[in-house]
């Protein structure tokens, strides 16, 4: 069985690889027309898609899945309209492929250009939201990449229908219909095939909780971009405006608690704790937030529950927040370095030197000065679409838009240029001689 | 033993991590002064370094190491002067850290800046050239990174002496002396510790042959940048200038055969084969090159030996080259896609459409039009120094200079900005709600 599944996976992956070669050089007009064809086909096939989705939903109900998860899984004609509209929005975005990132004429007359090219085949591992199937395919197609999609097995019928509709819509558009691929099978094994497909798949983007991401990093030989885990902190400096600090904290925690850029911890300088904590704790309580505090926070209110070591690491994604009093800005930085996930941290301060030091020392994808952590987002940053928020340092860090789905290639044009002797430069380059 | 070695490794890695936090925010002036202190100390300690090196050389001789490898391993006062001069050259290069890569004011008034920051701790696995120990440390230091160095065990005494001198030189410069670290131990295990140090080491750059690089990619949980394997091809198009094509081919193959951007294969269009091959084979023969050709190449000379499937994959690094006649440009591209290592390919042609098609379809880090493959090099590209040539697509592709040793961070400055409701954008971002 496993052998058969692996054969089947390799067959699909090789077709994806082949499609990548055909997709990479296509001009924007062809890709945009294909995206519109996909959007039209999704709307036209809404009944068929909803029917397939109904079997996923029925299976989920039989398995006792929560209503919340069933809502995320469910498709309706209206939701399919919205998904199609998002595809049209992607078509309207600029094409990153072909952009000259840098270019100049070298002293010897060679023309050097570094141009954006697609990554190739992008593997995406995600959970039970079928809209991701279409969103990811559209972002990949626009950036010239083939999408190898591996959604949750709970949405397999929906995803099969959606990918079938998209593949059929691509026929005749100039974009290979193999440019959108569903990883065959629903077993744990099928994910492993994707993780071991180095040479066929260029990058893997796992979307989900920390344990999924860790297992992918552990097992994958394909390069991985880690996304989405957010244990974000708000630091209230000694020199903060108290009202602003309370507003930012409440917004960061409660405006949408279930997302990765919501605050999960706040740290307050001891010098301002007496002024800040009563107001902050009252405001959080009014919003239904449970505060998990250290002893010095708990001294301000009996409602604060005792924080454990686990609370400092927690990504609650709920109306909970960890809280600690610190004696210095550097102690806040040390706490963030130790427990944070490198996503987003905010400082609230009127002190320019404090802001500068916090920005310099905090090692996270985004650092906010006097703004809510909730602004770390591709749409807010003006990218128009987001494939995820990278919390690692290689390739892309922070919100990833279409350019982050590309690599580059150097194009060097000469007139018969030959290499002569040149003095060695510092470095550890390839010379084995 | 292994447990002790692992403890020892973790102790060093944690000190490296700590040093990274101190090194990242340092201004250029402090880093440059530290580099000059390192250069001065290397020259002043030449006798001590040469003595340590002599014990590596003696051990290598006892082991029957070739004179060629012993030459690569050997240090002399003159070579140490040259190594120190390279460190001073790195000091003279611009500092990539702090550069604003992009910046604008968002519609809501938030100021957004994406700035370059160091990667953190960079692990480098390399072979028996002790100059790499210093070159790598200097490039890392200049880009604000801590270097965790793991050279060949054959150079262990030399590397221990070099790192000792560098660490001592950093005392009092403001750069933490832990910013340069040698991985403890010489066993295979000690490399594994480095490969599994996710969270402590930010990136691993293996330098060496394909088998070393493959084993690192296979076993590492730390993100890896693959470098240096070059199976580069020259394609002689139907519309080539024959003299230019012969000159480029001979230069690409013979100017320095042992390096990764030397040509290992040439492909010639059938329409020009009768004009090109006699001249090319004679010119290569005059330079002592053995051609491994297919039947159509062999028809032109009895000196051409029969190419096997292995020859198409070979990175000879010697005076050998594989050769094949193709019927179309697309057949040349298909050959390169199948057998190439994605390093550098060249086309020789007077046809603009042929050049354009070759550049668009070839999926390699660098594509040369009417120029030798030998130009793919950080020094030639004007980067001033090179940490390696990436043959992968993530993070960096092609010659890597100092900016490729950095990541970025978003700095967002507001005046108490709070997030309001915004319409959802396309994407598969972190929203779990």
List the helices and strands and how they pair.
Two copies of one chain form a homodimer.
Chain A: H1 2-23, H2 28-44, H3 46-62, H4 67-73, H5 77-92, E1 100-105, E2 111-118, E3 121-125, H6 131-142, E4 146-150, H7 156-170, E5 180-182, H8 188-195, E6 203-206, H9 210-219, E7 232-236, H10 242-254, E8 263-269, H11 270-286, E9 290-293, H12 295-298, E10 305-306, H13 309-313, E11 320-326, H14 329-339, E12 344-348, H15 352-361, E13 366-371, E14 388-390, E15 398-400, E16 406-417
Parallel strand pairs in A: 3-4, 3-6, 4-5, 7-8, 7-12, 8-11, 9-10, 9-11, 12-13
Antiparallel strand pairs in A: 1-2, 2-16, 14-15
Helix pairs in contact in A: 1-8, 2-5, 2-7, 3-7, 5-6, 10-11
Which CATH top level class of the largest domain in chain A fits?
Answer: Alpha Beta
Give the overall silhouette of chain A.
globular
Strand order of the largest sheet of chain A: 10-9-11-8-7-12-13
**Proportion of residues in helical segments of chain A:** 40-55%
Stated plainly, the CATH topology of the largest domain in chain A is called Aldehyde Dehydrogenase, Chain A, domain 1
Question: Biggest interface pair, residues each?
Answer: A-B, 110 and 110 residues
CATH homologous superfamily title of the largest domain in chain A: Aldehyde Dehydrogenase, Chain A, domain 1
Instruction: From the alpha carbons, calculate the radius of gyration of chain A and give it in angstroms.
Output: 25 Å
Quickly give the structural class of chain A: alpha/beta
Keywords (chains A, B): Amino-acid biosynthesis, Cytoplasm, NADP, Oxidoreductase, Proline biosynthesis
EC number (chains A, B): 1.2.1.41
Family (chains A, B): Belongs to the gamma-glutamyl phosphate reductase family.
Pfam family, one (chains A, B): Aldedh
